Structure formats: structure tokens, C-alpha cells
């Protein structure tokens, strides 16, 4: 939650309650993590008309789960007795795996999905610039560790796994296949 969002939550207890309700909304593709833990839930605020507005960002612009996520948000808010609300999807800033919380990374690993390695933020962005350098040439990253046995002796089988945001890997040591959440 941004410092601006924290300030708004401090002034409006309903916003704090909405954040708490939405904390429990799982990602439909990876139900062991919440949409907040993945960084999909960006903000909960009051709109000019007084309605509750929930801001979400997809993990990539063609993510097929976004309509389900919006529906799940609405169901959770309705079940908790919130009044008028709407979900707004924003594409900028683009989602990055840097937004995945440390707890979510641990949960992904325990679920059998290797979390993204490294940090996607560029040196320019981390140096305080408002702009992030977009790389069109893939960076060379070390192979992910196996989420089952921890071995770093793994190989990529396919660029795409069970979803477009994951790649399919196999551990050479324990021979188990696993999804790897690609960093971007």
C-alpha cells in the first residue's frame, strides 16, 4: 500500500475494512496467494461519488484471469456488506514481479512454483529516476532453484508453463517438473 493510500485509510476506516476483506481474495490461478500479495491489488479508495473504488493491475495486459479477479472482488465486498463499489483496471505503471511480497514468494515455493529470481527494477529506476528502462533483449538470469528439493541444477523445458507468465522447468536432481514465475 502506498503512503498516499495509507493516509486515506487512516482517515476512512471503511477503506481499512475493505483492504482487510480484499486481503483474503485469492488469485484464481494460484489460490495460495492473494491478489494483494501478488501486487495485483493496487489501491482501494473513495471515488468522487462516494463509491468504493478498487484499483487492480494485471500481471500482463492479456491476463485472462482479470475478469474473474474483478468478479471475486465484487463478491467479497458484497458478502462483507459494502455499499456501492467498482473495480478499475489500470495498465500503467505496468505490473512487475518486484511487486510480489516476500510472503507470497515463500507460498509460491511451498506450492511448487519457483518464484521469480532477481529484481526486475533497472539501475536507473532504483537510482531514483521516475522512468524505468524497458529491455527488449532478455537478460541472462541463473536457472531457478527447484521448489521441491532446492537444487539449482534445473533446466527449462518450455518458455511457457501452465500460464503465459510462467515457464516450465525440470529439476535434474529430483527429476520433478515445476513452473517458474518469470521475472518481468
Describe this structure as you would to a colleague.
Helix 1 (3-11) packs across helix 2. Strand 2, helix 3 (66-79) and strand 3 (85-89) form a beta-alpha-beta unit. This protein has 2 domains: 3-89, Fe-S cluster assembly (FSCA) (GMP Synthetase, Chain A, domain 3), CATH 3.30.300; 110-181, no CATH class. Helices cover 26% and strands 18% of the residues. It contains 5 helices and 7 strands; from the N terminus they run H-H-E-E-H-E-H-E-H-E-E-E. With 184 residues, the protein is α/β, with parallel strands linked by helices. The strands form 2 sheets. Strands 4-7-6-5 form a 4-stranded mixed sheet. The protein has a 3-stranded mixed sheet with strand order 1-2-3. It has helices at 3-11, 13-23, 66-79, 102-111, 123-126; strands spanning 41-46, 52-56, 85-89, 113-114, 154-158, 166-171, 177-181. The radius of gyration is 18 Å and the shape is elongated.
Observed structural traits:
184 residues; alpha/beta; GMP Synthetase, Chain A, domain 3; 2 domains; four-stranded mixed sheet; three-stranded mixed sheet; 7 strands; 18% strand
Amino acid at each position: 500500500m502506498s503512503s498516499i493510500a495509507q493516509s486515506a485509510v487512516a482517515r476512512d476506516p471503511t477503506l481499512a475494512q475493505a483492504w482487510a476483506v480484499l486481503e483474503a481474495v485469492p488469485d484464481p490461478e494460484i489460490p495460495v496467494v492473494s491478489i494483494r500479495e501478488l501486487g495485483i491489488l493496487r489501491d482501494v479508495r473513495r471515488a468522487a461519488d462516494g463509491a468504493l473504488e478498487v484499483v487492480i493491475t494485471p500481471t500482463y495486459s492479456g491476463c485472462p484471469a482479470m475478469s474473474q479477479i474483478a468478479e471475486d472482488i465484487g463478491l467479497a465486498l458484497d458478502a462483507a456488506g459494502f455499499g456501492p463499489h467498482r473495480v478499475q483496471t489500470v495498465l500503467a505503471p505496468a505490473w512487475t514481479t518486484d511487486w510480489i511480497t516476500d510472503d507470497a514468494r515463500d507460498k509460491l515455493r511451498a506450492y511448487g512454483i519457483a518464484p521469480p529470481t532477481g529484481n526486475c527494477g533497472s539501475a536507473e529506476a532504483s537510482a531514483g529516476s521516475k522512468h524505468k528502462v524497458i529491455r527488449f533483449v532478455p537478460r541472462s538470469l541463473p536457472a531457478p532453484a527447484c521448489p521441491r528439493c532446492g537444487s539449482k541444477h534445473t533446466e527449462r523445458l518450455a518458455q511457457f508453463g501452465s500460464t503465459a507468465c510462467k515457464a516450465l522447468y525440470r529439476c535434474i536432481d529430483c527429476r520433478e517438473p515445476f513452473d517458474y514465475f518469470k521475472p518481468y
